[in-house]
Design brief:
heterodimer; A: 106 residues; mainly alpha; Arc Repressor Mutant, subunit A; 2 strands; 54% helix; globular; B: mainly alpha; 2 domains; two-stranded antiparallel ribbon; 10 helices
């Protein structure tokens, strides 16, 4: 399996946290709140689309609303493949950090 | 009466031209939703600035992504959004015909009134006329591009590349306005060509 990027990992975690209300804008605002860094809509949507093409996310369209110019939302959720990818990332991170510096000791 | 603020149209057009087809509605919907939130909290100017910032940040990313996914090819057969609107297509065509029109109109004016405008304003515009006449490919190229762009307003090309499902469709939009506007540009283009050849300003190949 291809190793996913840090941004993609953060997007997957945000989608998981926001499900069943995970759509592009909400994911970006959630990440902005948690990381304290700006997240543009473009920076959110491209990884979302890439992850969906890779089969790690599934999406469905919501109803259009006037406040969105008559356009609907696209809601995302993790697939079983996405959950496995996150589990694999945890395993890899733990293995890497086990051999890394111990910040807690000093 | 205050009108409700609306997202900048030009920014929306730029994004529509560059967004992958499947992403267009949801992406623009998200931007518009947050635009209205910002406009209510911080005012229309802040919301407009935010919208433009998001657009300018997204365009380079989208260009790279379209190249990565192969959807960039649709721009060449589908045309930018502006050319799909007949009025914009015709306006762009007329702009491309401008070099030829600036030679033809003073020529017709001279035939009717005997006043030679290029001579009257030689110091101001003479060099420009001369450079166009010396380089007829500018006029010929402009005419060809104008016709190609305007034809996109009448002929609808559609290329969809969604995963393994690749479709190419072609249809003529039978709306009278589109056909009349294309006819106008063809007539104008051919008239300009005929005039320039009659006046020996374009070489006959």
């Amino acid at each position: 399996m291809k190793v996913i990027s840090r941004t993609e990992e953060m997007i997957l975690l945000a989608v998981h946290a926001l499900t069943p209300h995970a759509y592009g804008l909400a994911v970006g605002l959630h990440l902005k709140k948690l990381t304290g860094k700006p997240w543009s809509v473009g920076a959110t949507y491209i990884p979302l689309d890439r992850l969906e093409r890779a089969g790690l996310l599934a999406s469905f369209e919501g109803y259009p609303t006037a406040r969105r110019g008559g356009r609907g939302k696209r809601f995302y959720k993790l697939t079983s493949k996405g959950l496995k990818a996150l589990a694999e990332l945890i395993r890899m991170n733990e293995a890497l950090w086990a051999a890394g510096p111990d910040f807690g000791a000093s | 009466m205050n009108r409700a603020p609306a997202p900048p149209v030009l920014a929306q057009r730029l994004l529509q031209a560059m967004l992958p087809l499947a992403m267009t509605d949801t992406f623009l919907g998200d931007l518009e939703e947050h635009f209205h939130q910002l406009a209510a909290q911080q005012g229309a100017t802040s919301a407009n600035l935010w919208y433009w910032q998001e657009t300018l940040l997204a365009l380079p990313r989208l260009t790279l992504y379209l190249l990565e996914t192969g959807e960039f090819r649709r721009l060449f057969v589908h045309g930018p959004t502006s050319t799909r609107q007949p009025i914009w297509g015709t306006a762009l065509s007329l702009l491309l015909l401008l070099p030829a029109l600036l030679i033809v109109i003073p020529g017709l004016f001279f035939n009717l009134t005997g006043i030679d405008l290029p001579t009257q304003f030689a110091s101001l515009i003479g060099p420009f006329f001369k450079s166009w006449i010396d380089n007829p490919w500018i006029i010929q190229g402009g005419l060809l591009v104008a016709l190609a762009i305007n034809s996109m307003a009448v002929a609808k090309y559609r290329y969809e590349n969604a995963g393994e499902d690749i479709r190419f469709t072609f249809e003529i939009r039978k709306r009278t306005t589109n056909i009349v506007l294309l006819g106008l540009v063809i007539f104008l283009g051919l008239s300009i060509f005929a005039y320039l050849i009659a006046e020996n300003l374009l070489p006959v190949t």
